[in-house]
Amino acid sequence: MTAPDTESLRAPRQPAWRTQAPIVAVVAFGGAIGATARYAVSLWWPAQPGGFPWATFWINVVGCAMIGVLMVIITEVRPAHRLVRPFVGTGVLGGFTTFSTYAVDIQQLVDSGHARTGLAYLAATLIAALTAVRLATAATRRVLKRRQS
Question: What are the protein's UniProt keywords (predicted)?
Answer without folding.
Answer: Cell membrane, Ion channel, Ion transport, Membrane, Metal-binding, Sodium, Transmembrane, Transmembrane helix, Transport
